[in-house]
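Internal tracking record. Fields below are filled automatically when a chain is submitted to the structure queue. Please do not edit lines marked as system-generated. If the sequence contains nonstandard residues, flag them in the REMARKS field before resubmitting.
Queue: standard
Priority: normal
Entity type: single polypeptide chain
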Amino acid sequence: MNITARIQLAIDFATTAHEGQTRKYTSEPYIVHPVEVAEILFAYIPDASEDAIIGALLHDVVEDCGVTRDEVETLFGAEVRRIVNGLTDVSIEHKHLNRKARKAMDRDHIATQAYDVKSVKCADLISNTGTIVESDKDFAVTYMREKKLLLDGPLIGANPVVYAKAREIVDGYYKLNPEQT
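SYSTEM-GENERATED OUTPUT FOLLOWS
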C-alpha cells in the first residue's frame, strides 16, 4: 500500500482518536485494528481508492471516539465521510434496544451502502473474526451468527474477492462447529 500524505494523516488522526484504547482480547493498542482493516482491504483490492483506504482507517472513530462526521469531512472530504458514515453502526443511538434489534438496524443500514463501504465492512469482518473466535468461544457463537446474516444479504455487492474471503472464514467456522448452525 502506497502511504500517501492523506493516508498518513488518516493514520495519525486515527491513532490520536483511539489513544488509550486497546483491543478487547489482545490488549494491543486499538489502532492495530483499523490499520489491519486497511491492509486487508488493499491486499484483496490492490486498486482500492485512497478514500476507501482512509475510510478503513477511520471506520471506528465516530462510533468509538466521539469524532464527528463533520470533523471527518473537514479533514478528509465528503467521500471519506460517506464511507465512514456507511460503516458507523446506526444502532449507537439506540442503546436501549437489545442486541438482536440493534444488529438488525445495522444490517439494514449496511445493505443500503455502496460497493466500497461493503468491501471495507468485509475487511473489518476478516480482521475481527480470528481474534474473537480464538479468544471468546461463547461470544463467537453470537458474533458468527451475526456475520453470517451480514454475508447472506447486506454485504452482497462488496468486492467479490474480499467478500469471498469473508464468506470462506464464516463458512469455515460453521464447518468446524456444525452444532452452531
